[in-house]
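Memo to structure team: turn this sequence into structure tokens by end of day. - J.P.
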Amino acid sequence: MTAVTYAPVAPRRNLSDALALPAVLIIAYGVIPLFGSSYLIEAILMPFLALSLAGVGLNLLTGYAGQASLGSAAFMAVGAFAAFNFNLRIEGLPLVFSIIGAGLSSAAIGIVFGLPSLRLRCFYLAVSTLAAQFFVQWALTKFGWFSNDNPSGVIDAPNLTIAGVNFFSSIGRYYFSLIVVTALTLFAWRVATSQTGRNFIAIRDNETAAKFIGVPVLKTKLLAFALSSFIIGVAGVLWAFAYLRTVEPAGFNLDRSFQILFIIIIGGLATIRGAFLGAALIVVFPVALSRIGQFFLGDLFDSGVLDMSQRIVLGALIIAFLILEPDGLAALARRLTDRLRSRLPG
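Reply from structure team:
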């Protein structure tokens, strides 16, 4: 039986929708590098881009394909360490191929840990993917080869150089991350709007019905894990090479996996835009909370209080979104935009 193809319905777009993406790209590529401060680029935008890309990858798997995963940070770690070792051990290998190899390595690990999805679902699948988190961290700390036998296990990331162009400066690393995020986000969008994406959604909504109409369920699940892990692995390269400038297992702990999961829950499942909205909140929220706490409590609001307050408020936000707005910030932003548009004359 052949898979049924679904005729895509062309969304109604107005002028503001058509101009939104070019406006964002102009600001990102032109305005921010000219007027953005070093703090904005280094402390806000660099982690935002890496986490947004990781959120895009996880949203393909969880939001579109309905496969729960708690091992995103493990796939980021595989990507970061794979890129480091490709660059270190293959002399003359261009950085672009190191990054592609890192993504493929992460995809391969994703397929291995995605195999339980052929039998497990929901909570049980999430627990099985959690094994990836612990196994990868154990392997990276146990075997010194991955970190070039560095006693501390913390290694400096190589310089970002492509075709003789060095991206060492903060602006250069920002442009490098922005180009990679733009390219892979476009790729994820094409997947989500293609027949593959519709197969993902069919499996998420009703696996039995999807099998009945001819969707290759097993193949599609593994493909979702592979594509998601590839994108998340490249996000790990950006996190280590462009943002932290170091490669270490501690940068990809379980908290990072939960952080990426919170991004897609808050931003909105099954939406590319939601990954960016969720990442923006996750990155900006601690900064805003720190400023507010310092303003009202002064020195009493130290790092320990900040960390605990952040967890409490973030947990409350997640519960509120799950109850009041299950579709996340993306749906909220869409409704606000429609309401504002309806009040405009003409």
